[in-house]
Specification:
This is Response regulator transcription factor. InterPro entries: CheY-like_superfamily (IPR011006), NreC/VraR/RcsB-like_REC (IPR058245), Sig_transdc_resp-reg_C-effctor (IPR016032), Sig_transdc_resp-reg_receiver (IPR001789), Tscrpt_reg_LuxR_C (IPR000792), WalR-like (IPR039420). Pfam families: GerE (PF00196), Response_reg (PF00072). Keywords: DNA-binding, Phosphoprotein, Transcription, Transcription regulation. The chain has a five-stranded parallel sheet, sandwiched between helices. It has two domains: about 120 residues, Response regulator (Rossmann fold, 3-Layer(aba) Sandwich), CATH 3.40.50.2300; about 80 residues, Arc Repressor Mutant, subunit A. The chain contains eleven helices and five strands, in the order E-H-E-H-E-H-E-H-E-H-H-H-H-H-H-H. The protein is about 55% helix and about 15% strand. It has about 220 residues and is of the alpha/beta class. The chain is globular and about 50 Å long.
Length: about 220
């Protein structure tokens, strides 16, 4: 398939230059383009064929949250990794709800950014269970209204009993191995349930599922 094409989205040119320098020279990753405003992302993705977007959150004009929502709603959308300064930024939660594959702090070492790009290009989320737990803890302080809670409960009601138990465990931030141990399943069975849950609920990753479970509580 050739190198993974990456689009850099950040309003600070120094950040874009640093990312471009960091990623240049890699055989399996290519910086296909860069833009300074979320409004320019759809056209940039179309023209470059980017498979991964490194998306800043706070930008003048169209911010990264809005850009991520619009991008992930399109068919064959690229994976999005949001970039942030704070790991409890409410906008990061919004981006994850919109389908971003994960987030990176802007002080992440170069090797971590490269590894994240490679992983999401293969369809793997880059949020560890420990970070998922931190997000869940934060979202508990941001409870929505009854309408949002009822909507989340209605979606989860479409699951079978076993699927709901797996979803509830993921909603507490458990890893696949921890879910398997708690529910007396194999890890392969947990993965199979998660695949079915994602398809049934039209979700992109386990973080979206965890946040949906929290919304229902």
């Amino acid at each position: 398939m050739g190198p993974v094409k990456v689009l850099l989205v950040d309003d600070e040119w120094l950040v874009r230059a640093a990312l471009r320098t960091m990623l240049s020279g890699l055989d399996d990753i290519e910086v296909a383009g860069e833009v300074a405003d979320g409004a320019a992302v759809p056209e940039a993705v179309r023209s470059t064929g980017a498979r991964v977007v490194l998306m800043d959150i706070r930008m003048p004009g169209t911010d990264g949250l809005t850009a991520t929502e619009r991008l992930r709603a399109r068919p064959d959308a690229p994976e999005v990794i949001v970039l942030t300064t704070f790991d409890t930024d409410d906008m990061v939660l919004g981006a994850l709800r919109a389908g971003a594959a994960g987030f990176l702090l802007k002080d992440t070492p170069p090797a971590g950014i490269v590894e994240a790009i490679r992983r999401v290009a293969m369809g793997e989320p880059i949020l560890s269970p420990s970070i998922t737990r931190k997000l869940i803890s934060h979202v508990r302080t941001l409870r929505g209204d009854d309408t949002a809670r009822d909507a989340a409960r209605t979606r989860l009601a479409a699951l079978t009993g076993s699927e709901r138990r797996v979803a509830a465990a993921v909603g507490r931030g458990l890893s696949n191995a921890e879910v398997a141990a708690e529910l007396h399943m194999t890890v392969a069975t947990v993965k199979s349930y998660l695949s079915k849950i994602m398809r049934r609920l039209d979700l992109n990753n386990r973080v979206q599922l965890a946040l949906l479970v929290q919304d229902a509580q």
